[in-house]
Amino acid sequence: MKVAIKKLSNGQDLPLPHYATPGSAGLDLLAAIDQEIELKPGARMAVATGIAIELPLGAEAQVRPRSGLALNHGITCLNSPGTIDSDYRGEIKAILINHGDSVFKITRGMKIAQMVIARH
Fold first, then answer.
1. Dihedral, 46, 77, 74, 26 alpha carbons, nearest 10
2. Distance in angstroms (rounded) separating the CA atoms of residues 85 and 82
3. Which of 19, 37, 38, 102 could be joined to 106 by an S-S link, Cβ 3.0–4.6 Å?
4. Under 8 Å CB-to-CB from 71, ≥6 apart: which residues?
């Protein structure tokens, strides 16, 4: 399945989403932010990824949490999985929430979520 990925102005210097290993189901999504974000315990925020995609009809993308962030820091995606429809052309953002006990710092280029492309 072919998916067009467009880098937006806030993500020009970041790598495109890619699979970390040949067996990976999800593409890594990176934080395309200008300055460090402090996500306080209990807080939630939509974090920009600097990309937009064009999916074929009959496909969807799902934004999912990263297990390491969830286990080690209590950071997860609030609406997991977040569905991106084939007709959406805006910037992809990950809605993160901090279920941990301490402030979590998000920095530019940090892996914040993963995106799985699937037929429906």
1. -120
2. 10
3. 37
4. none
Taking the CA atoms of the chain, what radius of gyration do you get in angstroms?
14
Give the torsion sign (CA, 118, 29, 85, 71): positive
Number of Cβ atoms within 10 Å of the Cβ of 68: 10
DSSP H helical segments within 20-74, as ranges? Answer: 67-73
Beta carbons of 84 and 120 less than 8 angstroms apart: no
Q: What is the mean pLDDT of residues 17-35?
A: 95
Q: What is the pTM of this model?
A: 0.94
**Type of residue numbered 111:** K
CA distance 95 to 13: 22
State pLDDT tens for residues 79-120: 999 999 999 999 999 999 999 999 999 999 999 999 999 999
What lies within 8 Å, CB to CB, of 45 at 6+ separation is: 37, 39, 95, 96
Residue 16 pLDDT greater than 90, yes or no: yes
| Measured distance CA(36)–CA(31) in Å, rounded | 10
